[in-house]
Specification:
alpha/beta, 6-stranded mixed sheet, 4-stranded antiparallel sheet, 11 helices, about 25% helix, binds iron/sulfur cluster
Length: about 400
């Protein structure tokens, strides 16, 4: 048995079906990448129909109205996991919807790319617009494309729920994505072999590894000569619908944590606030930490009225989070033991404390996949993944002194 790095979290996800969240009266729809005024299509006072374009940025995913309504404001605000971006505040009104039309013209590859870009699909695994991700995979000449159903996060189960309930759309989206990337083989990536029985007819690859299991699976496949990549099942299902002209305006997230009464997988419209999602699951008044996104990589939220991005996958509320005060490194070596990339985070931490950085100590930092496993296990509470990211930026700039 080879020595396996990584960290095994205790699983607490929701295994129930996907439930529809009632559509809130007001939505604050994020419009990432719409810094330039020409990219913001929606303006205050506009009446918009469901599916209508709100923003069309050059290098980010387009945003669409999930319901018909009135744009009450266009404002710049903090969105968890996205930083400060423009957002359209939409008050629900009427039931107008844009007429959907299947994407036509050109070859299949062109139609797939157009559909992914116009529908504003974001891959929930990487957080990147799907059309950019498809381009990247095509350049890398990926031979095996996998819909990612791996759940290695303690609170997240949305990928598994989408695979279970939208398998037809996911399978079709996978076929379309593979046709663009040139991948000859398709399949599903799962955490364990026992789950494979639910997907007859699909090639299944199982990670059977601790967090970050996705990285371990890709490495194992690479070692056996297979160039594989993962795409989120929500993005793939959205791609299938985008070919029929539907924009991505809904997401699925697991709402969990010991500060919610019932953990659920909720389908929610773009612009839904953290508070709306948590309230649906019964938020305890004693919750002391809320974060959006997977446990190790998520963003802590201070404003519960902030909208949840469609690619968030998970919203977690905790009663008594382990608050680790940053103290000096105690030399336990856990960070190095869990790192899937063989980086020594404690060494990087030490190197960055000096006035000039030894370039040799920064070898390999560019291989960091930002999984944050090192930060999660550090008993001294050191922000190791952020430090490794800083070291990678220093190495890239060559500014060592
Ligand atoms: S964040 Fe980077 S340095 Fe830390 S465990 Fe993951 S790959 Fe290793
Ligand atoms: S896990 Fe934290 S305390 Fe332990 S060696 Fe790494 S940096 Fe030091």
């Amino acid at each position: 048995m080879p020595f396996l790095r990584g960290y095994r979290f205790e699983y607490h996800g929701a295994d129930g079906p996907i439930e529809d969240l009632p559509i809130p009266e007001t939505l604050c729809v994020p419009m990432p990448g719409a810094e330039e005024s020409y990219a913001r299509i929606a303006a205050q006072g506009d009446l918009v129909a469901a599916g209508q374009v709100l923003s069309a940025p050059k290098y980010a995913a387009a945003a669409h109205a999930p319901v018909s309504g009135v744009v009450e404001a266009v404002e710049f605000r903090q969105i968890p996991g996205c930083g400060h971006v423009w957002a359209a505040v939409l008050r629900r009104e009427g039931s107008r919807a844009v007429r959907t039309k299947a994407v036509t013209g050109g070859g299949l590859e062109e139609r797939v790319l157009c559909a992914a870009a116009e529908a504003g699909i974001v891959d929930e695994i990487t957080g990147r617009p799907l059309y950019q991700e498809l381009y990247r995979l095509r350049r890398r000449e990926v031979s095996l494309l996998l819909a990612c159903g791996i759940e290695d996060d303690p609170w997240c189960s949305s990928a598994r729920a989408v695979l279970r309930e939208r398998l037809g759309d996911v399978g079709e989206g996978l076929r379309l994505a593979a046709s663009f990337c040139g991948a000859e083989e398709l399949g599903i990536a799962l955490s364990t072999r026992e789950e494979a029985a639910a997907y007859p007819g699909f090639r299944v690859e199982t990670a059977n590894a601790p967090y970050p299991a996705k990285a371990f699976l890709l490495r194992r496949l690479r070692k056996s000569g297979v160039s594989a990549s993962l795409i989120g099942p929500q993005a793939l299902a959205a791609l299938c619908r985008a070919m029929k002209g539907e924009a991505q305006t809904f997401g699925v997230a697991t709402v969990a944590g010991d500060a919610v009464r019932t953990a659920k997988n909720l389908r929610f419209p773009a612009g839904t606030s953290v508070r709306e999602l948590l309230s649906r699951c019964g938020l305890s008044e004693d919750a002391s930490l809320v974060y959006v996104g997977p446990a190790a990589q998520g963003s802590a939220v201070t404003d519960l009225d902030a909208p949840v991005p469609l690619h968030a996958r998970c919203v977690t509320a905790l009663l008594h989070p382990q608050r680790k005060r940053a103290v000096a490194c105690i030399g336990c070596g856990r960070c190095a033991r869990v790192c899937p990339q063989g980086i020594l985070p404690w060494e990087i931490h030490e190197a960055l404390r000096k006035s000039s950085v030894d370039p040799f100590l920064l070898l390999g930092v560019q291989n960091c996949i930002n999984c944050a496993a090192c930060t999660a296990v550090c008993p001294a509470g050191l922000p190791l993944s952020a430090e490794v990211a800083r070291a990678a930026a220093i190495r890239k700039s060559g500014d060592f002194f």
